Every structure is written in structure tokens, then in C-alpha cells.
Records
---
Amino acid sequence: MVSYRRILLKLSGEALSSSNQNIDSEMLKKVVSIVQSALDLGVEIAIVMGGGNLYRGASLSAEGMDKITGDHIGMLATVMNALALSDAFERNKIPSMVMSGFPIGGGVCEPFNHSKAKNELANGKVVIFSAGTGSPCFTTDTAAALRAIEIGADIVFKATKVDGIYSSDPMQDPSAIKYDSLTFDSAIEQNIKVMDTAAFALCRENNIKICVFSMLEDNYSLANIIKGHAIGTTVSQTGD
Ligand code: UDP
């Protein structure tokens, strides 16, 4: 029994990178395999792609660049990642398409359109949303919450390098406790950094669960959560 019909997977740019390459073909293969095992269960999959492996607006503006220009560059970085991921899907016979939060000409990708995205998902395509919300001053986490609402996704999966949400950073604090579940209110109150507050607030207002899980553990963890296994940390209105 599968618990979800349509899911939104938020991938940070770092999901595609390695110590050698900003966009690493082995990491692309890993993502393809994770997505394939979830598609095999019959769920529809949309992806919001991050860009932090290439550029982040905040890092560019810290170097002196205009903040808005930095965010434009960050959003364009997500388009590059999305194109690389879509290409990897196509090479593995997984139909996919890229949509962008702002229009890009030249046949590069399509502008975001919620009803077209829903139709393509229903037809079995993986739809990759790029360019975040299309506006500066947001993150791709917020874009994930927004797109999930717009396409009627049942849940947002946030893939990270850690296996869930902890009371403090488990890399720095050996006494950190992992939460199985949390409410949106407590995630916001505790200032949990794994997603930004705007994303938590949007999901809370629209009653869309978030599940934080590790991409590194194995290629089946996403599929196993979809099958109902208790993996990672879920954030919801009720915290169950
Ligand atoms: N960004 C933006 N508006 C959005 C989403 C992203 O301006 O709606 C810019 C912002 O500069 C951000 C960059 O794009 O730093 C890359 O996105 P993000 O940092 O969320 O990528 P991730 O950390 O997920 O790889």
C-alpha cells in the first residue's frame, strides 16, 4: 500500500555535487536511482531543484555583489542543475521536463504553469521546477512549499545529508536527539534550520506534511518512506 499519490521532492544543489565536481555524474545516477525506485511504486514525482552547489545569492552579496543580482544568479544556477538532472532522467528512459519560475527563451525550458505541470505529472513525467519562486529574496525551500501547494502534492520530501531533524547539529553535538516527528509550530519556535521558516509556515497554512530524510543512506529510503516505513522526521500540523 502506497501512502501518497503525488509527492514533491526538494533536492539541494549539493545533492548533485561531489568534492570533485559541481555537477557529478555519479550523483546524478544516484538521484535517478532514488527517483526510479519511487516511480516504480506508482507515485507522481515533482522536484524542486536547488542551486547552492553552484551559486547562492547570500555568498555573492557577501563578496559585495548587489543582493538582487546575486539572487538572480542563484536562481539561474538552479536552472543549470535542473537541465542536468532532466538530461540524466532522459538518458535513463525516465520522461521528464523542466519548468522555470521565470520565462527563459530559446527552447531551454518551459515557464512554470501549475495546470500543465499537473497534466504532465499525471502522464507519468517527472517535472523539475527550477528558478525557485522566480523572485529574489526567497529560497528553494520556500519554492518547494509553494510548488507543492500549487500542484496539490500530498507531501514535501526534503533530502539532506542527515537522517532527520535533531535537537541540535548532530555533527557538532554528540548529545543531539533525533525527532521522529514535530509540529510546524515547534519547528518554527525552535528555529529548526533544516528548512526556512517561510517554508514551514506555508506548509502549516496549507496542511502539507514535510518529511526530512537522508539521501545518503541508501537508494531505497524515499521508496520505503512512501511505502509507510518510519524513516526520517516528519513535520506536520499535529506532529504525529
Ligand atoms: N533563489 C532566489 N529565489 C528563490 C529561490 C532561490 O533568489 O525563490 C536564489 C538564492 O540566491 C539562493 C539560490 O537561488 O541562494 C540557490 O537556491 P538555494 O540556496 O535555496 O539552493 P539549495 O541550498 O537548495 O541548493
---
Amino acid sequence: MYDTDILILGAGAAGLCAALELDSRLRVTVLCKEDPFESSTAYAQGGVAAVLHDSDSIETHVADTLAAGDGLCRGEVVEHVANAGSEIIRWLQQQGVDFTPHRPSGQLHLTREGGHTRRRVAHVADHTGRSIQESLLAQVARRPNISLLSHRIAIDLIVSESAGECRCLGLYAKNTKTRSISAYRARCVVLATGGCSKVYLYTSNPDTSSGDGLAMAWRAGARVANMEFIQFHPTCLYDPRARSFLVTEALRGEGARLRLPTGEEFMHRFDERGALAPRDIVARAIDFEMKRLGLDYVHLDISHEASATIREAFPNTYAHCLEFDIDITREPIPVVPAAHYTCGGIITDLDGCTDVPGLYAIGEVAHTGLHGANRMASNSLLECLVFGHAASHHINHSLSTESPLPEVDSWDESQVSDSDEEVVVSHNWDELRRFMWDYVGIVRTTKRLERARRRCAMLQEEIDEYYQDFRVTRDLIELRNLALTAKLIILCSLARQESRGLHYTLDFPDRDDTLAQQDTILCPETIAQESPA
Ligand code: FAD
Ligand code: SIN
């Protein structure tokens, strides 16, 4: 049994920001399932969107976000987040993030990405996320009230039910080094577990993005929304030897062109904004051309720019590509789309509160209404930080630490044994991620979605049986969560009978404007009655 006031699950931008903003008299515990540098945050390249230049305005940032979101953003949330942008950049600077300056003016250098009509992305060369992660971790290390415990994978939330009201009391987590499972009791839990892009075979995300927080919240009774809107990043390095590596959109912001292997530029055939159209459009165009011509990849080419400029602006991309014998200053980069960002998530209000009392959700795991049907580039880190602040301020103002923590049961392993066939888990991991890629990817049809739904139900049954009988491992915990997340993506996709933003289906190829402002909301109780798996 481990006791704390506030338990934060996740040590990316959202979780660390929340920890730092909590009252220093509170005991704060941050858990993460691997090394703290394994998070999407640490891999972020492009930067943080904020209105920082006279040529820009809050109204323009709002208008661009709404346009990318294709009719589903919540206006008040977009305004709230856009308004907070410059303050968030100042906060990051106070934590030690050293943004790249604009040489002549001494102000910050701002880059452009898809959907932005102005330069508004503050960045640290092309490794913004790593710099943010380093700075926030360094600040956390200085705070005696914050304990950061790595290699702890949460299994499930502990929720009490009394008089028809449930409340989150903590969670069970496994120490993956010692293999022991403990109950962590807390006055409230903040989920900051990131997205679920690992549900797809090809993804830009690290292994941590397995939808754990989303699945746990769902099992605890929280509603989720808009899971059909999975963002595929248009340009991930294609090389069979390379682990997923994203080639930042900022390259296109600084003039890189998308070409077919013949050298022909193609994006203007799809959108007048060309390679800087919002991501849904660019990813679909690449997918279309790859399928039309039977290509394994297309080219992203910045080699027309001066070599020194490229190396200075994109040192991370340059070095990484060179490891695969691609010199981006002289030749094009082979790229393909890959699953990148989960636009939907656990429904929260402006303070990060979920449907379950005592449970908050912030960052990529949450659905706040900011992104609508398609997230605009570099709005995500901004959202993590805005809602990290908001949740902590809400906790600081509303939490009472007077009463003792309620009793909770210890984790019971008396009825399970060690697994006899790990191959079942690894096989199901592969199968799930492949059918999600093939049937629930960039272009969908009702038939493919139905096929995926049947496969998913079978897998879930098998996984649940396995889960009842055997001791949990990290792979099993993640597989169970991925399968549930897959089901929620499929159900949302089937429910949306139109094409909008990131959800494109050949059976309903047009946008249905009667559905503007209508989120796809799933409620655990209703779904459990319809399909028990
Ligand atoms: P994460 O940073 O993903 O952190 C999740 C944390 O939760 C990790 O510490 C993990 O260990 C922990 N966790 C998860 N499950 C469990 C569990 N069961 N038990 C314990 N701990 C758990 N966005 C931008 O705005 N600008 C960019 O330039 C940008 N570039 C990107 C580039 C890449 C390659 C990627 C992958 C994403 C990029 N994004 C970018 C998106 C953005 O980085 C993420 O949306 C954001 O970092 C998510 O932060 P988070 O704090 O919500 O989660
Ligand atoms: C990128 O650098 O292209 C990723 C930016 C983002 O996902 O917001």
C-alpha cells in the first residue's frame, strides 16, 4: 500500500506540468511505466503553437484551429487555449526551456506547420519535446513534495461505489523491475497517459502510447468521445531498418516539397495550400498516390535549401537520416504516413474533471473539444500545458486533506498462475495492430469496419480469459487496453456516417452539415448492455 495526496499517472508534458503547479504542501506522486524519457512529449519535434508576433492574433489562431477541426471544435475551448499560448511559452522559459531565437530580432524564431496561416510555432531547433521533457524533469527533481516513480505500470483504477456515487480512490500498479503489484491510495488521480497510436501497426509514437489511461477510465465508468479521429502524420521516415521516426512538418513549413519518386510535386492537385494543407488532407493525398501508383513511399525534399541552413535548423532530422545513409541536404527523404495522434479521448471540462469524481484527465488522453475532427499541428503540447495548469489549480482550490484516505483492497493474485503460453499475447498484439491498420486506417468502409469489429470482439474474449487466469505482465496489460481502445475507435467510426476531418469513409464520402458540432459520445453503461466484450 502506498499513500499520497495526488497521484499523477504519466510523466510527459501534461503530467509533469500538473505536478509542478500543485500546491507544494501536497504530497504528489508521479508514476510512469518506463524511463521518464519514454513519452510522446520527449519525441516531439515541431514545437508549441502560440500567438507571439505582431503579425499574428488570437483570432487567427482560433480561426485556423477551427478550420483544421472541420466543424467539431468547441469554440470556447479553442479561445481559452489560444489565449493562454503566450503565457504558456513564458512558463516554459521559466522552467528552463531555451527556445530557438530569431537571429536579427532577438525574439523567438517561429516556424510554420500545416493549417497555420501564420508563423506561430515556438521551437527548440527540431527537438522541442526533448528540451521540454528535460527542463520539466529537472524542475520536478528540485521539489521535495514530488516523488517520481518510474517503471510502474498502472493496471486499473480503484473506484468505490456507495449510494449510487462512485469515486476514484487510487490505482493498482505493477513495478516492472520487482514484479510486485501495489495499491496506490490518493485523494485524487490525474490521468496523463498520452494517446493510443500503438493500436496501429505503423506509428510515430513510442511504446508508451497504448491507450492505458483511456481504457482504465472507461472501465471506471467515464465517457469517451470522438475516437474515430485518429491523426496520421503524413511524413514518417520510410526505411525497413528504422524504428518509427517522424520527419517534422516544420520541414514543409521551411519549404520542403512533397514529390513522387519521379520528381513530380503532387499536393496542389489535392489542395491549394499544397504541402502545408492540414494533415488529414496531406496524409490522404499521400495514401491515394501510394495506392494509385503502387508505391512504398513518397519523397520529402528540402535539398534545394542551403546545406548549412538545413543542418542548423534540423540537426536531429539530419543526424537521424544520416544514420540510414540519407543526406537530407543532398537528396529527398522517403516518407510514409503513420498513426500519430488521438484526437478523441476521455471527456473532460475546462478543469480536466472527468465523469468520475476524484479522476482528472489531461493531455492527449483527454477530449477537451480543442481539436475537433483534426488537430492542428503543435496545438497538442499547448493543450497539455494549459490543462496541466487548469487541473492543478482546480485541485489546489477544491481539495481537502483533512479526512484519512479510505481503505482499499490489496491486489489479489491468489487465483492466477504464471502464463504458460506467452505466444498468445504476442500473436494477438500483432493481429490487432495489423487489422487496425488494414481496416480502420486512413480510408475506411463500413464493411472493413464491421470486419474489424468482429475480429476485435473475438480477441477481447480471448484476452479477457487470459487475463482472468494468468499473472499480469506489461504486454498483457497493454494488449487488454489496446483491444478495448480498438473497439472504441471502431464503434465511433461506425457511428459517424459521414466523412469529416480525419474520418474518411468511402461509404459516406461527403460531409453531412447537419452533424456539425455533434461529437460521437460513448458511454460505458450503454455499450456494456449492447455488447458485453
Ligand atoms: P505523453 O508525453 O505521451 O506521456 C505519457 C506518459 O504516461 C508517459 O510517461 C508514460 O510512461 C505514462 N503512462 C502511460 N500509460 C501508463 C501506465 N499504464 N502506467 C504508468 N504510466 C503510464 N505535439 C505538438 O504540440 N508539437 C509537436 O511538435 C509534436 N511533435 C510530435 C512528434 C512525435 C514523434 C510525436 C509522437 C508526437 C508529437 N506531438 C507534438 C504530440 C505531442 O507530443 C503529444 O500529444 C504530447 O506530448 C502528449 O503528452 P502527454 O503528457 O499527454 O503524454
Ligand atoms: C511535427 O513536428 O511534424 C509534429 C507536430 C505535431 O504533431 O504537432
---
Amino acid sequence: MEKIIKYIESNKDRYLEELKDFLRIPSISNEEAHKADVVKAAVWLENHLKGIGLDNVKVFETEGHPIVYADWLKAGNNVPTVLVYGHYDVQPVDPLELWTDPPFEPVVKGSKIYARGSADDKGQIFIHIKSLEAHLKNNGKLPINVKVIFEGEEEIGSENLHKFIEVQKDMLKSDYVVISDTSMYTDNLPSICYGLRGLCFMQIDLVGPNRDLHSGSFGGGVNNPINVLAEMINKLKDDKGKILIDGFYDDVEKLTDNERAEFKRLPFDEKEYMKDLEVEELFGEEGYTTVERVSARPTLDCNGIWGGYQGQGAKTVLPSVAGAKVSMRLVPNQDPDKIAELFEKYINKIAPKSVKMKVTSLHGGKPSVTAIDTPAIKAAVDSLKKGFGVDPVFFKEGGSIPIVNSFKEVLGADGILLGFGLPDDNIHSPNEKFDLNNFYKGISTVAYYYEELSKIK
Ligand code: BES
Ligand code: ZN
């Protein structure tokens, strides 16, 4: 291992330049205009994976964006086979004017690299690629069998990967799935994420009168879809943060006293949190701490809302249409399809006759949890300790990576989530960044991890 760690140390600058190349590709998955760029990122990965010495490198076409696969399976039957998963697609960059530097022209300032995708998830998949390279270039082999799969649709729901893993079950069969697409709990605190929330994403469209109307001539005569929408949204939650959709909490797994005690031990400073966000007060479900509310309890949030005049100045219009996007984060045992049904039923119940309404389910994903008493988690603890010099903490992440549940259901493989991002990396926001110290420590950690995993079968 010493040789490998030295190799990582002496190749740092090259690693960084390569990462910058990867980050220059604007692989935004939800914008048609960037379809070719998403393909470009897949081909870039294909070439890179060939270059480091992986076998069977292949780009699989799908109905959406491509899936990149490669493997190295010569370590024999006495060691585990690990699937390394990540995504090379990135979020859109708007609002562009809030970026200090252009999102696809990576710049290093201090220890941070700024670019869209730097933390989510290109920088983190590159950690694995460079660890594999360090093993292969120094030893000509890997300590375990490895399959890698990188998708271009994580940010839009992984629809084609869900289908792909059903069809390619045999090719993807593995003992564990290792994923770096989450964050560390705080800086200098290596972390293992053992739970992810699920997601149910809905859209409400309302139509009132058949055309926009003069609000003087018609105001008072017909209901206004924006007013109706506001009232409906207001009925989704009470003022104590409890979600009012009938049956919403029916399947929610209760938090155990033990888990709640563990959450209390996480280093969380409410004052710092408020200061960072520049808010005077926090809000969330009554009876739960902030740590619990943002990771282990379900939520409902409006993500977008529209209707009427939004331009400069005033326009006296009574709009014909209004709409909103509403997402719910789900916790173990909740099923996104069932929640979508309950949502639609409730919305129908509270909608007045004065508007026509359409409720659409956009996408969803199941929550996931990893049992923390498995040997692969123990090996992760040891590796993080070696890579960072500190004992890691366990926590649940509020975000979602829906494919993790499918890996478990379809392949029977537990997800091991080693996140190297930081909570303030601005993922999905302007000025996304990634800490290069964690990038390099991550590469060493993962190199140790592959070695540690070879001892557990
Ligand atoms: N990397 C994130 C998941 C994540 C979010 C990790 C927050 C750590 C903190 C992932 O790329 C993501 O954003 N997922 C989406 C999934 C959705 C589109 C199905 C999410 O959580 O919104
Ligand atoms: Zn991500």
C-alpha cells in the first residue's frame, strides 16, 4: 500500500488537470441542448477507463443518456466483487449570473475547485477512478474484483438505469455497491452515510377562466387560480410542520430511541446553521430536532410556482392558469407510488369546483438504508481512519439516490456510501465547489478500502 499512497501523492497535479478536463464538459442531463455534451462525457470516461487499464470498457446506449461500464475481474473467487456506481451528469447552472466564475471553466482558489459537477458527482467518481489507477499502475492488479457503472441520468431520476440493471442483472452481480455521491458530515470529519431519503415529485396545474382577464372587469366574478393554488398549498402542511395529506405518515418507520440518541451525538450547531443560512428562525416538524427533520423524517416542499404576471412593474391581470411543483422526501417504508396516489386524492379533495385541475407525478424513488454492522462497513471505517486520521461518524442523508434501493432489491447488494463532499459545496446551486484536500484524501481512503475489502470474503 505504501507504494500506492506514494504514487497518489506524486501524481496529484496530473489528477487535478484531468479532473478539470472532465469538468469542462457541460453534461447537463435535463437540457436537450446538452445531449451531445452528455455523450461527450460518457466517451471521455470510456477513454479514461481504458487508459487506466480496466477491461470490457463499454458505453451502453439507452433511450436517454448512455451508461458507461467497465470491469476488472481477475482477483479470484476468494475476494468480493464490488460495483462502483456514480453519475457523470450534472445539474443545470441557472441562475448563471450568480456564478463568480463560469460553471464549466474550473478554477482553483485556495484548496477548493469551483465548477458545476465538482462535488456532485464528477469529482467524487474521479476519486474511485484514480484509486483504481493507483492500484493497477503499481501492482498490475486490483485486490478485489471491480465493476464500475457510471450513469448520465441520476439528476433526472435514473429511469434508464433502473431498466438496465434489471436486464443486466448477471453482468452487474456484485457483493456491494460502493458510492461516493454524498457529503461528509462536516469538514475534517469523514462520514459514512447509512440512509438516504426517497422522493415523490408532483406537479399541480390549475386552469380557471379560459383566458387571462382584466382584473378590474372580472375581478370579484370568478375565482383566481393563483389564489386557489395558494390556499391549496397552505392546506398541505399545518403551522407545526405536520403534513396533512390523509395517510401520509401511515407507513413511516418510527425512529428508535437508540437512533435518536446517536443523532444527538452528531456535531450540529444550530446557531452556526442559522448564521450560515442567514435566517432568524428555523422551521420544521414539531417534536423533532433539526438533524432529524433534515434526514430522518419525511418532508413536503414547494419547489416552484407560477402563474400571472411576473415581469417588471404592474399588470392588472386575472390569470387563466397557475401551477406548482411539490416534492416530498420519504423515509423508510414509505412508497413513492402510494404517496403519489395519496397526494392526488388529497388535492382532489381540497380543490374547489371553480378551477379545473391536473395532478401529474413527475418521478419518484424509494428510500434506502444500509445495516451498519456488515463487514464492508467495518472495512470502510478502518479505511476512512487511515485516509483522514480520524474516526468516521455515521449519519443519514436527507437527499436521495433512488438507484441505491434498486441495487439492493435487484442485485441484493448493499450500498456503502462514502461521501467526500462538504455540506457547503453548493451542489445544485451557483458556485458549486469541491475541497481538493478531501479529493486527495478520498483517493487514498478508497485505495485503502479496496485493499481492506479483499480481507472480508
Ligand atoms: N448527490 C445528490 C444526492 C445528495 C443530495 C447527496 C444532498 C448529499 C446531499 C444527488 O445527485 C441528487 O441530487 N439526487 C437527487 C435525486 C432526485 C433527482 C431523484 C435529489 O436528491 O434531489
Ligand atoms: Zn449527485
